[in-house]
UniProtKB/TrEMBL annotation:
The lineage of its organism: Bacteria, Pseudomonadati, Pseudomonadota, Gammaproteobacteria, Alteromonadales. It holds the Pfam family Metallophos. Residues 169-372 form the Calcineurin-like phosphoesterase domain. Keywords: Signal. One of its GO terms (molecular function) is acid phosphatase activity. Residues 45-158 form the Purple acid phosphatase N-terminal domain. PANTHER family: ACID PHOSPHATASE RELATED, PURPLE ACID PHOSPHATASE. It comes from the Bacteria. This is Metallophosphoesterase. SUPFAM superfamilies: Metallo-dependent phosphatases, Purple acid phosphatase, N-terminal domain. Residues 1-24 form the signal peptide.
Amino acid sequence: MTVSLLSFPIRTLLFISLWLITSAASSESAPAKALTPHPGATDWPDRIIATPTAFPANSFSLTWRTDQSVKKSYGQIVQARPNARYDVNAAQFAAQTHTMSLAQGNIPEGQFSYPVNEGLQNVSYHSLTFKGLKSDTYYNYRVAGANGKWSPWQQIKTASAKANQEFSFLYFGDAQNGIYSHWPLMLRRAWQHAQDAQFAIYAGDLVNEGASDQQWSNWLNAGQFIHRTLPAVLVAGNHEYDWQVRENAQKNWALSTLWQNQFTLPQTPALPDALQETAYVTHYPDMDVFVLDSEARGDINLLQAQAQWLDQALQASTAKWRIVTMHHPIFSSCGMPLNTPGQDEPEIRAAFLPIMLKHEVDLVLQGHDHAYARGSIGTDIDAESVATSTASKQIKSVFITSVAGPKTYPIKPTRWDEYKKYGVKLERIAENTPTYQVISKTKDTLKYQSFTADGDIYDAFTLSKDQDGHKTLNVAKALPPERTFNNTGAYKSHHDLAE
């Protein structure tokens, strides 16, 4: 059968053109990437990052790096005081230290290598969790390298233990590309917008190559003081996984060994070892944040284990607000043209969506699609009764996908039409538009705002919940026109961006 391009709508033709350009670019040899700094480890501490525990009202975790000469390290902490020498009252604790090879490792199948790190020296990673802290309290801390070589003092605030406490947090989709050239601007702009945020969610694909120490150097150095003061809720994306090249030249696709060495995240004893520090929950005041590892989609047993855990954890949750964050979207907004599968992940949707709807998860925050998309499922999930995109309406869950980096994709021509049987409505999109999100919790509402890199509002809504748990979605009335590739100017390939 002969198919004429003239038979397709303009929107579909634009999508096909953009997809063909992207495909052609990827089939050619990529331009040389811009150089980026890659400072090596020394006996001074660097790459310091704070992460939440399961209960961030009374604890937080730290991870930092030194060269391999440092075999023992320490952290000091003291409640913040106005005294000039607050440090004289600091308590000192020993850290856990692990020396690792960046270029080689071992798995049950044998030894493997990361060619991208060839020639790099071994390093030491140190981790420490400060426990038994007061809630809603500022603490000063510092960490050590070799004897006498301490980081500057940093300040961090524990979460409140009060259910009705108001607070905000940040949410970012994929950084992934331009993590030296473009990502720092977005991260710092967001922090300037919400300097009192309690934490930040990074919804996967923080870097492009999960095994690349240089790319992790760029990501971690993009916001050094931010990472040291704003706990990072980290989601593993498909690009945090990488090929482990074995001695027999076979490859094993697995979570990069840098992930669990660089970050200290909550453990989940109910889950298999393969999901530790990639699937977990952290409990903020009247808000539970559940993190899923959707890259485990290649193993149905790991998906089912997470689904069972999520079901039980949501059932046990007493928090008024429940948020799930994962990398791959439940409903994909991007994909190949002509109804090919593209980005869609039906196995992830089958595993998690029924549980999300059963417990009426409030927000599902995702990445991966490299476009902006917001939609919701109403209380009546009959596809024929989906509400309009602007009206105040009763809903079960809101689904959001965003991108923070400069690599962007077009929205597929079918939008979310193929998902109508789930009662979901795609209500707001953006192409060629990185964003950051500020989400604020009050006693009865979640106030959601999405901003472009110049600080302008792009999307906003308020989610209200009454005493019976009924939720009402009210979308802001005065939003700017939707941004698409045909009204935002030319897009240059991401291949020449500094990673």
